[in-house]
Amino acid sequence: PIEKAWWKEAVVYQIYPASFLDSNGDGLGDIPGIISKIPYIKSLGVDTIWLSPIFASPQKDMGYDVADYRSIHAPYGTVADVQKLIDELHANNVRILMDLVVNHTSDQHAWFKESRASRSSSKRDWYIWRDPKYDEQGNRKEPNNWKSIFGGSAWAYDEPTGQYYLALFLPSQPDLNWENADMREEAYNDMRFWLDRGVDGFRIDSMNLMSKHPNLPDGKVVTDEPYQSGAEFFASGPKMHDYIREMRTKVFDNYEVMSVGELGFTKDEQSVSQYVAKGRHELNMLFTGDIVDMDFGANGKYERDDFHPRKIRKITNMWQGAMPKFDGWNTVYLDNHDSGRSLSRYASDAPEHRSTAAKMLATYMMSLSGTPFLLAGQEIGMANLAKNYGAEAYIDVEGKNYYNEVLQTRGGDTSKMADVLREMQLKSRDHGRLPMQWDDSPNAGFTTADSKPWMTINKDYVDWNVASQIDDPESIMAYWKRMIALRKDYSDLLVYGSYIPLPETLTGEMVLGYERYSKTTGQRALVLLNFSDQEQIVVAKEYAEYTDSSILVSNQEVEESVGSEVALRPFGAVIILKH
Ligand code: TEU
């Protein structure tokens, strides 16, 4: 049986600090705002929060460009405020994970300022500097053809010292050189700074980009564009596991740390297993990106590729099946601050379906093995900005860069951008960062009525907000609370039980179905999730043992006992428990 651990039973709530609650009317969320909502957070039944970066930063990438890990972005508050947050969370038995952004820093970080000061700086080698290349005409060229994740070359030229530095995200986010042991020690000291203050763990940003191929070779040419991905040479490089183990033994093992690695580009079971398999002594769990990328195109996020339930079946079956094979653990999530809301992309935010669909997705997340992470707002069914918002509503750098790149190739003609806008309406990172909808007052109770929120507030807040759901037993929020409580009550089954996929031939292509089984308690459950806006009938006679079983939970009216077939209404979900 799977070994039990608190971090396996945790239910995590992601808070995007800018968008949670503004306590001082400057239009930006802040730490005191979060502190004031601890009773609310606790009332949901979640027991851990993950806070996206709150550190001092010029905010070129919303804090994922850290200028100083030991101070706090002033509009969010102070280190003392964060200490108060940690202490009050702990007093309420809620743990806190911080975002650890150590693949890169801001170009305003003291380390980088020193590094760029001269070629002979003692910190020159803390970042990745290379000489230019020259073409036959003698034109200066980047050291290789890698493409930045946010567009353009992954290299930025530094005129005064005549070298390029590597920046896989924005040019203002230079990549650290993890080969340098002094740099690593300083990063560990920053981690200790927060662990000593009581932080319970980290979500490690862009974790597997920390080790690059030492020769930084050109990426495989797959498009006719000037720059190519190159990810095969900068993701999960040869020293990746050495670095994680060092971090683990030198830092994490001296505390009780929950570690969650963000794993991009690496997708195969074998490589993934290396990070979390028992006995490897590396990380507790991972975010593999595939679950939030289901509607991304093969050559880029904003290329069109529609969601189909088959995709979630494949990914869910794959990871639920893989982890037990190597005694590993994983996360369960559908939303984060880097994507559109799953409700709008994988289910439906249409008024007639919204509530049922949000509950169906909650049923999915709470009935799988792994540690669930929900994004604030998911518990009230927050959705993407509607289709009638224009390009100006989107402010995130990733989407904007892409939009402008394409706009340029179309001669700057904004009337030709409908296809790109369609994709942004689904996938832009802005949707995951919408201010929390607390009530139906002006500015949704996120900030004072007369202040200007840092980003668009979704107009649908008038109908979809915390205040309107908190006392309604039929609300999405009530359903989430019930599901979280059920997960705790049935942890042997829902957290630790084995996962048995149902073939599409049994459920039909639009329904995701699986069984959970606990050897310890002998309990068995059948989970059926309708990912379509049509009624779906699942013939349960193959599952004879479930007839006369009871419904553990459902988002629709169901018979007391189950007959030979189950009729799932649009986006219907049901968990049937065998006694
Ligand atoms: O994201 C890492 C990453 O690879 C992203 O490019 C992600 O794939 C993309 O945003 C999906 O649209 C992390 C953070 O989560 C993200 O917010 C940061 O911008 C990025 O690292 C750089 O720190």
- Our count of helices gives 18
CATH class of the domain at 498-578: Mainly Beta
What does the radius of gyration come to? 24 Å
Query: Kindly, what is the distance between the CA atoms of the first and last residues, rounded to a whole number of angstroms?
Result: 21 Å
Task: Give the low-pLDDT segments.
Answer: none
InterPro entries: GH (IPR017853), GH13_cat_dom (IPR006047), Glyco_hydro_b (IPR013780), O16G_dom_2 (IPR045857)
Domain Glycosyl hydrolase family 13 catalytic: 14-433
Keywords: Maltose metabolism
Family: Belongs to the glycosyl hydrolase 13 family.
Q: What is the topological layout?
A:
Layout: H1 6-9, E1 12-15, H2 31-36, H3 38-44, E2 48-51, E3 55-56, E4 68-72, H4 79-91, E5 95-100, H5 110-117, E6 129-130, E7 133-134, E8 140-141, E9 155-158, E10 163-166, H6 181-195, E11 201-204, H7 231-234, H8 240-250, E12 258-263, H9 269-276, E13 285-288, H10 309-325, E14 331-333, H11 342-346, H12 354-366, E15 371-375, H13 397-409, H14 418-427, H15 466-469, H16 476-489, H17 491-494, E16 498-501, H18 504-507, E17 511-517, E18 524-530, E19 536-539, E20 550-554, E21 565-568, E22 573-578
Parallel strand pairs: 1-2, 1-15, 2-5, 5-11, 11-12, 12-13, 14-15
Antiparallel strand pairs: 3-4, 6-10, 7-8, 9-10, 16-17, 17-18, 18-22, 19-21, 20-22
Helix pairs in contact: 12-16
Bound molecules: 1-O-alpha-D-glucopyranosyl-D-fructose.
The site of 1-O-alpha-D-glucopyranosyl-D-fructose has 16 residues, from loops.
